[in-house]
Amino acid sequence: MEKIKLAGIGCGNRTNVYMNLASKLMPPKFDITALADPIKERRDIISSYQQGNRIKHFDSAMSFLSEEKLADVVIIGTQDDYHFKPAMEAMEKGYDLILEKPISNNLEEVLILAKRAAELNRRVIICHVLRYTPIYNKIKEILKSGIVGETVSLNATEGVGAWHQTHSFVRGKWSDTGKSSPMILAKSCHDMDIIFWLVGQKCISISSFGELSHFCSINAPEGAPKRCTDGCPIADSCQYNALLYLTERRNPWLEAVFDTEKSRLDEGGASDSEIIQWLKTSPWGRCVYDCDNDAVDHQVVNFKFEKGITATFTMTAFDEGRNIEIFGTKGTLKGGEFIKKVTGHDLIFYDNRNGIVQYWDIEFDPDGNASHGGGDSGFVQSLYNELKMDNPADMKSSIQISVESHVMAWAAEESRRTNRVINLLEYREQTLDKSS
Ligand SMILES: NC(=O)c1ccc[n+]([C@@H]2O[C@H](COP(=O)([O-])OP(=O)(O)OC[C@H]3O[C@@H](n4cnc5c(N)ncnc54)[C@H](O)[C@@H]3O)[C@@H](O)[C@H]2O)c1
């Protein structure tokens, strides 16, 4: 089997996850040939996954891209506001791409990238990893089988989880939506994509409401200092106490952001005093009621699709995991975290005609990475075959397909901000005009 040469631009958390999984594939399918990131430790961690191979290191995307072509495919895992430039330049240089979502945090740039990828006939796979989870693939298969009948409407929820919300969207990298992306794009473009994929029609109309209600100064406990390391009076009862990063919130949360060479590579990791020292200055040590966050902690979206299917979506910080209900002409299919907790099964179908209930249990690859419901490992396992497809348009999560989730997310955000129903036919045309 001819291995695919793989490079990485931005060697933080996500590129690390993909490279680690790719390096474990048997038989080996990828050769890591080049890594670009200003932080040397991050490049070193990824290099350690591949023994005996010389990997070229670069301290920036541009220094890598100014060299001769060193790989077949580049993973672009930089932050949301730095996808467009390296992605465009890499495509011009002849690279195919594995591009993190969001494609860009600017919709016009999303459309420009998709157009250029088509012109250059580049394979650009967007990391919409939920398309590669066993559960959503099972749902797709059940819908195709016809037992649910025609889909009439659908309801999906995404419980971000209170700690995840504070880690990423209050203290963390996506708290300031101006610098990163609005919540509906940063977190829920996965859900936009899954809803679009399961419905199988284009969305024509969207409305949305959402607020930042809880993680703001008005809810700060009396006497709470700016940092949890400064002796908070409610430290023992606060579920967001940053000192929990030392114990129950160490893995995967601390690991994902406190990634010095010591913490990742030494068996024992960093000492408590090193972590406390880090919390005294890092964004992750701040009181969650005293951050510079503006990402919403709850949002709802209503959708109408081309042939009349309707859908609703709720994102909330205060629940954990995703759930879905699909209402068909023959019965109702429900699945996700809540159904699993209550029934022990992943999916349940209630047949309207005879009241018979069917269950499905989803098997996970025991050697795979369970993150994103098995999506990360499912994604990496599919990459080789997708990248070898003759027609880039046949890829499951091509940029051309993924544009739709981004249009839906931006339209929802526009509706939330302006209190209007957005006609997507007009919205798409206006954005296409701006990007052409
Ligand atoms: N697919 C998913 O489910 C999923 C989940 C989380 C995050 N994401 C997305 O993945 C992307 C990366 O997120 P992350 O958490 O890995 O971020 P990260 O901050 O851990 O990694 C980004 C890396 O880019 C590096 N970088 C900065 N400037 C650079 C430059 N000029 N050249 C090369 N490298 C540079 C940084 O040093 C850092 O190591 C984001 O767009 C994020 O929204 C996707």
| Main sheet record | 9 strands, mixed
Q: Span between N and C termini? A: 41 Å
User: Over all CA atoms, what is the radius of gyration?
Assistant: 22 Å
Which blocks of ≥5 consecutive residues have pLDDT under 50? none
Query: In CATH's first tier, which class of the largest domain applies?
Result: Alpha Beta
How many distinct helices?
16
Task: Summarize model confidence as the mean pLDDT.
Answer: 94
Strand tally: 15
Give the CATH topology of the largest domain: Dihydrodipicolinate Reductase, domain 2
* Ligand set: nicotinamide-adenine-dinucleotide
- The helix/strand class is alpha/beta
Give the oligomer, counting copies of the same chain as homo and different chains as hetero: single chain
Q: How much of the polypeptide forms β-strand, as a percent range?
A: 15-25%
Number of domains: 3
Shape: globular
Order the strands across the largest sheet as they lie in space. 14-13-12-11-7-10-9-8-15
CATH superfamily descriptor of the largest domain: Dihydrodipicolinate Reductase, domain 2
Helix percent band: 25-40%
